[in-house]
């Protein structure tokens, strides 16, 4: 587990990750599976910087208009 990434996730979520696993895919981000106590989430690191706000904008539509877990 990358200590810096784990610390950043803990700062954002208020919980320390138990495990991080790099996932494949993603055109504009490094993607990690983050296992917490009893919950799993996905963390994305934008490459280049500034790319994630665009992706967040694009993900709002399915979150607002479907039952998908976004």
Please give the structural blueprint.
Elements: H1 3-13, E1 19-23, E2 29-36, E3 39-46, H2 52-65
Antiparallel strand pairs: 1-2, 2-3
Describe the structure.
With 70 residues, the protein is an alpha+beta fold. The chain has two helices and three strands. A three-stranded antiparallel sheet has the order 1-2-3, with no helix packed on it. It is globular and about 35 Å long. The mean pLDDT is 86.
What is this structure, in a nutshell?
The chain is an alpha+beta fold and 70 residues long. Helix content is 36%, strand content 30%.
Rg calc: 13 Å
Model regions low in confidence, pLDDT < 50 over at least 5 residues: none
Oligomer: single chain
Helix amount, in percent? 25-40%
- By DSSP, the count of extended strands is 3
Main sheet makeup: 3 strands, antiparallel
Residues in β-strands, percent: 25-35%
| Topology as a string of helices (H) and strands (E) | HEEEH
SS field, number of helical segments: 2
Spatially, the strands of the biggest sheet line up as 1-2-3
Q: Classify the secondary structure makeup into a structural class.
A: alpha+beta
Round the mean pLDDT to the nearest integer and report it.
86
Shape: globular
- Give the termini separation: 25 Å
């Amino acid at each position: 587990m990358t200590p810096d990434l784990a610390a950043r996730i803990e700062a954002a979520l208020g919980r320390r990750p138990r495990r991080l696993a790099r996932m494949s895919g993603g055109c504009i981000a490094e993607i990690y599976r983050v296992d917490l106590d009893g919950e799993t989430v996905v963390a994305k690191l934008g490459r280049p910087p500034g790319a994630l706000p665009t992706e967040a904008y694009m993900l709002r539509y399915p979150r607002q208009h479907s039952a998908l877990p976004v």
